[in-house]
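Troubleshooting entry. Yesterday's outputs looked truncated, so today I'm pasting the complete records for two proteins to confirm everything comes through intact. If either block looks cut off, that's the bug. Protein one:
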Amino acid sequence: MALISSDNLDDSGRKWRHDIAYITIILTRSIMGVLQYESDGIPSWEFAEMDPALAEHLKKSLFLGENMAYTQRSQISEEEENMRVPVRLVLELRKCLRAQRKRLTKSFPTIEENKLLGSIDGIMEGYYDVRTFKTTPFPFPVVQMSRTFLFLYVFTVPFALLDDDASFLVHAIELFFLTYGFMGLEYVSIELDDPFGEDDNDFQNLRLAEVAYEDTYLTILELDGEEWTDKLRKRNFDPKRADALPRQAAEWLVPDYGNGRTSVSGSNVIV
């Protein structure tokens, strides 16, 4: 997106890239919010990063709005509505992308626009795969039977060693490793069953989203400078804390880690 629109370095191009970048960031945050909902119970329209006007628009376009409530056929949970937010945000992103023909001084060709729309399709394919993983129930009888047979096998293994003439120490070591192996694999399967959340072994979803934010900031910084990068970052945070944020991108974008330092000079990032 940045490279394709790089011919528009005036305010129209900067504003358009700002809106595209912000909606993309919020889309990333809302997808992570779907994964985190079971843990924190916070729907996407209540995120601190969400622009109040955009949050209100989303609620009106979902079944939460009075203009849409009459169309629903059954009671819809908040979690189900939360899963629709990325779909609505993708629609807003597509609208903003298509608006380049009117908003940019030098609009880019349709073939380039279609490439960007294809990238959005790729994002949604990944999201639908994750949503399918989250919503597809695993047959409980399969889990119940597998664990029952696992425990029966582990607890009856010692009887198979009654006729063995080996020493007690050998038997103890054999049983330890058998139990450790089978029970360990069962606990691994439990962890893999739901890798999203706030457990120690879960994916760090929010940190992965923050990495995407930082990549977006760096791209805007290189093309539009510190002022528009700072505007994007402030828009992506709680408006109540916006005044407390530093004005210069060099103060927050890349911290000093002691061993190595990364600095920002103008629109060039020096590592």
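Protein two, checking that the full record survives here as well:
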Amino acid sequence: DASKACDADAACKGFTLQRNRNDTSATTFIRLLSGAESYVVYDPAWLSYTKVASRGPSYFWQEGYLGHGEELHDEYMTLLKAKEWCDEQKACAGFTYEQSSDQKQEFHVRFKSEPVVTSSEKYMSYVKAGTMAGPENAYTYQPGFIGGEDPIHSGFMNLHYAKVYCDGDKKCNGFMVNRKVYQAAQEVFISFFGSTKVTFSSEWDSYTREKPREEL
């Protein structure tokens, strides 16, 4: 897949793919980036993944704003710099910024002490996946659904607690949520799976382990 191809190429700095499509085909146009092309320009029709050398915590991408807790810091910066700042601060639970149609690399980023995201189409947030996050607990966001098997668990919760649950279940390798439903509510019905195979769909969002557990 694209992640493995980019890992194998030292010159690859990341990859980008079209987000909104009408079909549910698993085949998606992906363009690998290198060198000066590795910066990301905001466009709601595309998703980009950039390679980061650090082994810091993983983050959940969520549409909405962090409105709870203490505001630790605010500054205009790139999203990579925002992640690095939050990585270094134990009190930082994540960061949020207002979406813009302007083609720019820096945003007015606000850092918060609480990971609670309130749904809003005007904002984007990245929530740190808990103090336990590391290479063995990192998750990858993919637009699509996990299929081919029955869920091992399901329930109403937010994405932060979904990650906590999956960390604690030895059979869990990922979870998914209906995108339209999540845009209208903070807590939604989330299904958990032992599989990491995601089929592309504009209707679903999935989070799968970067290092899957061995099947029991």
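Both blocks look complete. Sanity check on protein two: The radius of gyration is 17 Å.
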